[in-house]
């Protein structure tokens, strides 16, 4: 099989490549094997010289450490090479196309990184006096203004650390508003296709979650929603565009219905990238919505942080927003940090400090480099790219819902029926083609779901290559080459793992083999 440049894309049966060949080192060209960092340690081998600390009287009351902390002794080259080798085995947006549906993995422009490292911004400390960080507070205030303008909402809190944290913030504000009115409401309505964090957030806040089914067209069933409404409903949590990649055409009616019973409309903002500059959520009747800066505004996705999930509020919820927040006072910009005065109805504090400053800088740089017209084009190009993929694969994969999609194309696995190949098998084969697999088996309302979001930052050439790879693999699956998929991936540093076993019986701690000869371990580590 040749790609469009005439280069062989994978070995064929009569290939001269012998997969059984081995090397002395275990390395295969630039695919370098690296043992665990603990296995490389040699006592006394350190990368820095540090003077012995002066003796001090212990104040630990007999709780002093009796044994070594267990970290390996390593030279600087060992440490550097180990983590560089590991990084080569990771897939990243800087390496290739990352088509995760419902996650918006877009390019992170390097201008953002340059600005975030400017002196006076990159070296801020959260406990500096406000008089010394006026520029930083003004930057936060500018970003807040952009977010309010983009969403058509009058208030925003910047401190939530991620999307799920933003959801928690919004629902806590809803609960605080009802409590201020002397109301006890017990239920929150959530569509069946919602992100899993939506019902989890509502439950965490003490609400009973009631699922609302979808219609045949993939949108929330308005009649079923109306039937579930009542005076005990605190609100609805809805994603728009929804997790099926479709715009909820009844969104204004949904907002009106929930407002009629005194409830609030929480909108999950994970998919804001699809409507950026085209639709203002405030005009749709939204009362609270988190904004994933790492999705819509290109700040890096953090592995547990540095996330940022500001939440915008309607007038009805603004008074209950958490502290701190920035205001412009007589002496410049100030932080309101206490639940008193104008903030007397705030439900309190969610985070130790104001938010993730590095993400604020990157997001504002992204907004200002695009401008209003550029932000609008982001949504237009994201939707165009998704529909290009949908149409290009529609004869090979079955679209879950008819018609034009928004920012992501959703397919089911009906094409694979009877082939012995599953969605998971197809995804594993995508790894061999050099792509991170799409989102699989989500949303749960679609059997064997494949959710593909190209974002606006991918070129047509990249999309064509992805589409070509998908068509090639689907042809192999329907032609009966089942064994190829069951053994994929073939070319990754590690082959298919027992994912179920790993999840149920994880090995989270390295335990040295005490029976091994110490000299033998030293020589093996040195050779590695």
UniProtKB/TrEMBL annotation:
One of its GO terms (molecular function) is pyridoxal phosphate binding. It catalyses: N(6)-[(R)-lipoyl]-L-lysyl-[glycine-cleavage complex H protein] + glycine + H(+) = N(6)-[(R)-S(8)-aminomethyldihydrolipoyl]-L-lysyl-[glycine-cleavage complex H protein] + CO2. Residues 1-22 are annotated as: Disordered. Residues 186-302 form the Aminotransferase class V domain. InterPro entries: Aminotrans_V_dom (IPR000192), GDC-P_C (IPR049316), GDC_P (IPR020581), PyrdxlP-dep_Trfase (IPR015424), PyrdxlP-dep_Trfase_major (IPR015421), PyrdxlP-dep_Trfase_small (IPR015422). Residues 1-15 have a biased composition (Polar residues). Keywords: Aminotransferase, Oxidoreductase, Pyridoxal phosphate, Transferase. One of its GO terms (cellular component) is glycine cleavage complex. GO terms for biological process: glycine decarboxylation via glycine cleavage system. Residues 380-474 form the Glycine dehydrogenase C-terminal domain. Its EC number is 1.4.4.2. The glycine cleavage system catalyzes the degradation of glycine. The P protein binds the alpha-amino group of glycine through its pyridoxal phosphate cofactor; CO(2) is released and the remaining methylamine moiety is then transferred to the lipoamide cofactor of the H protein. This is glycine dehydrogenase (aminomethyl-transferring). It comes from Sneathiella litorea.
